[in-house]
Write a structure and sequence with these properties.
heterodimer, A: mainly beta, Methylamine Dehydrogenase, Chain H, 6-stranded mixed sheet, B: 150 residues, mainly alpha, Cytochrome Bc1 Complex, Chain D, domain 2, globular
Chain lengths: 649, 150
């Protein structure tokens, strides 16, 4: 009996040991078919692609690594960001100036990379502000907003900023038609008085400087999205429009009446000819251009007062309408420039136009009708083919460079892969949930890098741990290198992402700035050495020239500040090494902190409200003595005689 | 009983096989060796500079070095007194010139690998010597300036 018991015990032990003995790695072993290994980027290693994803109604732009889906940076563009002092520091406040004054927010939509010969070159990325029409240019050596230009005569800058093959122009089409010039009239005079402006913003190839080169005044429809042609169609830009019904109320029903709306094809080379011939009107228009001066390290605003306008009826061959069913949303041109995909969001089929056929129809004057001097080409003369019953609610299409197109379907919540030439459907994968935009690295260029597809979803519902009524926005990563798409990863995004761009890391990473050289810093309030630190009073204005280096401020004791003063702290980070930012914050400051990169100068306005001693400190952990990086300011009553002095001992 | 023994040995085998693996993962005990006596005038430190030939002081170079020193170093160093970092008067009498240049050009590695630099880091409360990304030329001119500080 005892032996039996012992044996039982022994075998129980054995079983226990054999199980516990199994090394843990075997249990969670990654097999070759496991998708985890395909998105896993080892600690310390880099991702293969940068993904530049719109921040939607956050107004910003976010940078992710692919395939890991790791968030690397949020670039403040149209909204204030107290973490980075964007829109709070004296240097960046001008960036958010508009003809309406300072605006702290916008709704940012479509990132678009600059291109050389139809391929993203990694110099700049552009993004549109939708609400108060603007376009921003972000410098991809610093990942900072370098310029923002306001778009006049626009009423909702949605069909932008799509770029031409060699970054000659980014376009900015208006979603809302408005009276041009603006005037106080009854809304129900829409049909007579409202126009849609399509703007072409030139890009200086040297420094990227933007200028509204010209606008085309189009019939008062809603211009929704755009894409430039490429290769054989490089001289053209295509804009979708809906509401060709020209309704101004209950668009949900009223703007969905007609079988077909249009894709407007604009020949921008022709526009340049007309401009040269002087066939434009100069219209008064008030708008601002804000730009970052790299030498002075601060932004400036410049006011503009007129714009050149082309009227299609005066400019034959400038614009053609391509009839497209039904309220087309995205318009996407394949890498060869031949196929123009109209994503008719209320249509059960998708129309694909042929550029070659379009040119023939123009030559043979195959016009259905003419609207305000714009010929409407015959639908069946320009059609390359129809993708039959691909899904419900097509919105956007990107390409993989292997002859395939990928279209998102919002209502049926899926991505559908189809053959651009044969229009045959090859694969479909569900999205969780309600996909809007999609991105393939280089997927709207002449040479897509393919490999991955990112779907940007409008609804996440049960995909993540809930966080109250407001849930995270989301992207999903698919592997598209094989015949079938494979879902690899969900990752959260910021704001509601509208479109994204993807580019191999090696086109951006080598140019990434590590720090600013002090000797090239020509900020009017820079100090280049600690012994230049000082405090100057000019009436009620006090300028504090502060130096910051691990781990002290110079000066760190300041006296003689009075209630009612406007104190400007100009903080220069005297470090000359990578990843040594210093922060600066002062008690009671009613704006934000400063976050100053090495070699940079930033300024914070502080208006002391009451007498006392007020501390300031470095907010960014900079060294083992970071907690010692602090100082005091003595504030005296308004009329006191406290002498201005400062020290560092 | 034979069965029992057999099972016992199997048990022991499994136990050992299992435990034996763990044994391998054990880290070897840290060996502590008393730091060697270092001659600060001979220690060259770690960095891009391996050797230097010094001749008579080049006044022009020292003047340039003074400017470089003021532009890049004075936020933490004074000539006559200890500040964030040590006073630099007489530094060339306390340290090998190669060590000085390596400390300027390669401070992150120096404070990790060089005993003298490590000791300085502790003495100055952990205030790191900032890498100001100077060129060898700039560092050389600063060294020349240091040679005049006696």
């Amino acid at each position: 009996m005892r032996l039996k018991h012992l044996l039982l015990l022994m075998s129980a032990c054995l079983i226990g040991i054999t199980f516990s003995c199994k090394p843990p790695s075997e249990k969670g072993k990654i097999s070759t078919t496991d998708v985890a290994s395909r998105v896993y980027v080892k600690p310390g290693e880099y991702d293969e692609f940068y993904a530049i994803i719109s921040g939607g109604f956050s107004g910003q732009l976010s940078i992710y690594g692919l395939p890991s889906g790791r968030l690397l940076r949020v670039i403040p563009v149209f909204s204030q960001d107290p973490e980075k002092a964007y829109g709070y520091s004296e240097e960046t406040k001008p960036m958010l100036n508009t003809s309406f004054g300072f605006i702290p927010w916008d709704d940012s939509h479509h990132p678009e990379l600059s291109m050389t010969d139809g391929v993203p070159d990694g110099r700049w990325v552009f993004i549109n502000g939708n609400n108060t029409p603007r376009i921003a240019r972000i410098d991809l050596t610093t990942f900072e907003t370098a310029e923002i230009i306001e778009i006049p005569n626009s009423g909702g800058n949605h069909s932008s900023p799509f770029i031409t093959e060699n970054s000659e122009y980014v376009v900015a089409g208006t979603r809302f038609s408005v009276p041009i010039p603006q005037k106080d009239i009854p809304i129900n005079t829409y049909k007579e008085n409202f126009k849609g402006a399509l703007s072409f913003i030139s890009i200086d190839p040297k420094d990227g400087e933007m200028d509204v080169a010209f606008q085309i005044l189009m019939p008062g429809y809603d211009y929704d999205l755009a894409h430039a042609g490429k290769g054989k169609s490089r001289d053209w830009v295509f804009f979708t429009c809906y509401n060709s019904e020209q309704e101004h109320s209950l668009l949900e029903v009223n703007a969905s009446q007609k079988d077909k709306d249009f894709i407007a094809a604009i020949n921008w080379k022709k526009a340049e000819e007309y401009l040269k011939q002087g066939k434009f009107k100069t219209m008064p228009a008030e708008y601002l251009r804000n730009y970052h001066d790299d030498e002075k390290q601060m932004a400036f605003s410049e006011r503009k007062s007129s714009v050149k306008v082309l009227i299609p009826s005066d400019c034959p061959d400038l614009v053609y309408y391509l009839p497209t069913p039904k309220s087309p949303h995205g318009v996407d041109v394949d890498p060869t420039g031949e196929y123009i995909v109209g994503n008719g969001k209320l249509s059960s089929d998708m129309s694909v136009h042929s550029f070659t056929k379009m040119m023939e129809a123009i030559k043979n004057k195959e016009f259905e009708t003419t609207i305000d001097g714009i010929p409407v080409l015959k639908y069946d003369k320009i059609l390359s083919g129809i993708v039959k019953q691909p899904g419900l609610g097509p919105l956007h299409t990107e390409f993989d460079g292997r002859g395939n197109a990928y279209t998102t379907f919002f209502i049926s919540s899926e991505v559908v892969k189809w053959d651009v030439k044969t229009k045959e459907i090859l694969d479909r994968q569900p999205c969780y949930y309600s996909v809007g935009h999609l991105m393939i690295p280089g997927g709207d260029s002449k040479k897509p890098w393919g490999k991955y597809l990112v779907a940007m979803n409008k609804i996440t519902k049960d995909r993540y741990l809930p966080t109250g009524p407001e849930l995270t926005q989301s992207a999903q990563l698919y592997d598209i290198s094989g015949d079938k798409m494979e879902l690899l990863l969900d990752f959260p995004t910021i704001g509601e992402p509208h479109y994204a761009q993807g580019i191999p890391a090696n086109l951006i990473e080598p140019n990434s700035v590590k720090y600013y050289k002090l000797e090239d810093n020509h900020h009017p309030h820079v100090i280049r050495k600690e012994n230049e630190a000082r405090v100057e009073r000019k009436g009620k204005e006090v300028h504090v020239y502060l130096g910051a280096i691990r781990s002290h401020f110079a000066p760190d004791n300041i006296e003689g500040i009075k209630v009612g003063d406007k104190v400007y702290f100009h903080v220069t980070n005297l470090e000359q090494d990578w990843d040594v930012p210093h922060g600066f914050s002062v008690m009671g400051a009613r704006n934000s902190e400063l976050l100053i990169m090495p070699g940079q100068t930033e300024s914070l306005l502080w208006e002391p409200m009451r007498p006392g001693i007020f501390p300031f400190y470095c907010t960014d952990f900079c060294s083992a003595l970071h907690q010692e990086m602090q100082g005091y300011i003595r504030v005296s009553p308004k009329n006191s005689k406290t002498k201005l002095k400062w020290s560092l001992d | 009983m034979r069965q029992y023994l057999l099972l016992m040995s199997l048990f022991a085998f499994l136990f050992m096989a299992c435990g034996g693996k763990k044994e391998k993962n054990k880290t070897s005990p840290i060996t502590r060796v008393a730091p060697k006596k270092i001659d600060p005038l001979k220690d060259k430190g770690v960095g891009p500079i391996k050797s230097l030939k010094l001749t008579a002081i080049d006044k022009k170079l020292a003047e340039k070095g003074k400017k470089e020193f003021e532009a890049n170093c004075t936020a933490c160093h004074k000539v006559d007194k200890n500040y964030i970092g040590p006073a630099l008067k007489g530094v060339t009498e306390r340290r090998n010139p190669v060590w000085i240049m390596n400390m300027i050009l390669n401070p992150e590695v120096m404070v990790k690998k060089n005993q003298l630099a490590k000791e300085l880091l502790v003495k100055f409360n952990g205030a790191p010597m900032a890498n100001q990304n100077l060129t060898e030329e700039q560092a050389r001119s600063i060294l020349e300036y240091f040679r005049t500080l006696k």
